[in-house]
């Protein structure tokens, strides 16, 4: 079949193309056998999208590697994996290589690993075509161009000769999809294909995957930790936990009537783009069990709110669940309770009370200003030459950023890679005079070199939490020393420090007895709590949180977000919260500032900006974020932005969003010239009195969530 032949869906959809039956994968280790996959059954039909969702260690990626025959030789694999009835388990590497890339195609998280840097993208796609389909080199090259065009690479005739490093991350991911579908595979296996990508690029890649699947008629196995991404894309979903499928159903039925407490918790733990956030998220207590030494019974028992003694005897089988459509199966002894008592996560799990702050009743205008940034600029020299470096230009990393944070308030800072978020944070934390623009921190203007005592005061009053606690915590120090460090740095006496450390540990939900342990002895969520305790040590007024929950699984993330909300309310803290995840921002922030290519483009109260976005970029960002509700997600308008942001090495004239702006493309010529010549400034365009500004000459509200 070629790409242009229509797919016969009626014929295609009935026959299973890939069947996995009772798959087990065990990794022998010096400490014993790790049972990574424990009896997985999956069926995938042509033209169908099956989403596998699970957190770290759930076995989802090991399952997909087993299907591809890419497990290490030490792995013990049992059970059956058949492709069109042919058994794959037990085949040698040579036989599997003939299947991989031809009948089962792969799309991975890291496209760079799929391409060899020394050959052009076109050569590599053409090579795949030649190996599996034969034909002439000219035909293979033409096919590569056709495929690059199909996945939306602009000017495919020219870009076919580009090297992988000349493509942006999103383009590489699309090129990998082109390579994957080069041979009209029966199955496309996409393992976290959008995880490292910005949200607008994620939307492009998902749209390309949809096209690729439609054009080839292949079955798509989509593996992701993100229930939101899977919701709108998958026909059916399998939820994995501790190496097993614990629930499987059509996407609609799974979200509407989950029948396994873990799924209920996962849905409740997700912050949602489309909901106001005055309630805490559902934190699933504890962490997943070790697959080295599983206790008998249900593996979710230690975390389950419905657990009974019976659950700890035998592991429940995956069976037809009560009061749902046929084929909706769940591995839970008490699934019937979810029928009677409803499946609202807050009915099943204990929610902490919503934190309240005394400051909530104080109008924003009357609260103290904690941080004010106006027209901030930061450039870096662009140099050439290895010995004698010459400045040949500038990188305009930040070129007009405005921020305002008041006491007891969270400002969410949103923007994609290269938007200048990190540079902005560095400029604030450096406490130096900015290149241009102004920074005022807790009433102190950074307009001259600060004296030692002011620096000390500000260092205590402003602290920071980073994305990766493992990288930001010294692995050689016990937790007590890590938390004590900022206190000692500002000269607090030792006895006060010894009193304060256990207090801080309790405050973030850690046992003070664990103070002598080292960071590696804690889970990811606990390590982030240590970082938060350290950030709280010197009684800060403002905490700068740089992607603090991005590295955490969703059930753990919920607990950390609830903790941050509680600390903010009880200690009257202010947060500058940076996240690429707009759903997290909707949940945590009071106000939000959106950045694009080094500039602020929109700012306002979070509900106002999310419900009535004004700037075309904010609108595209919001439309690109999937909501974890398949029915709603399918009905939403999605604005897929073309291309990538322009390079910050070129000083832009007019509006810098112009090259990707869907509104600009629709404007009459006379109005376009305004976007080309005149830099838009932040002006109120929103509803009266909404305190909502955007930098667009033609800002108009649009509802997208
Ligand atoms: S079997 Fe028991 S412990 Fe397991 S999910 Fe169901 S209620 Fe919870
Ligand atoms: S000013 Fe023009 S190009 Fe810029 S966002 Fe508005 S419409 Fe688009």
List keywords for this structure.
705 residues, alpha/beta, Rossmann fold, 3 domains, 8-stranded mixed sheet, 33% helix, 22% strand, globular, disordered N terminus
Gist of the model:
This protein is α/β, with parallel strands linked by helices and 705 residues long.
User: What is the number of domains?
Assistant: 3
Radius of gyration: 27 Å
Q: What's the arrangement of strands in the largest beta sheet? A: 6-7-8-3-9-10-12-11
Highest-level CATH class of the largest domain: Alpha Beta
Tertiary shape: globular
Poorly predicted runs of 5 or more residues: 1-12
Give the helix/strand class. Answer: alpha/beta
CATH-derived architecture of the largest domain: 3-Layer(aba) Sandwich
Q: Can you summarize the main beta sheet?
A: 8 strands, mixed
CATH topology of the largest domain: Rossmann fold
Helix content: 25-40%
Compute the number of helices.
Answer: 26
Global mean pLDDT:
89
Query: Looking at this structure, what is the CATH superfamily of the largest domain?
Result: P-loop containing nucleotide triphosphate hydrolases
Taking the alpha carbons of the first and last residues, their distance comes to 39 Å
Beta-strand level of the residues, as a percent range?
15-25%
Ligand identities: iron/sulfur cluster
Q: How many β strands by DSSP?
A: 24
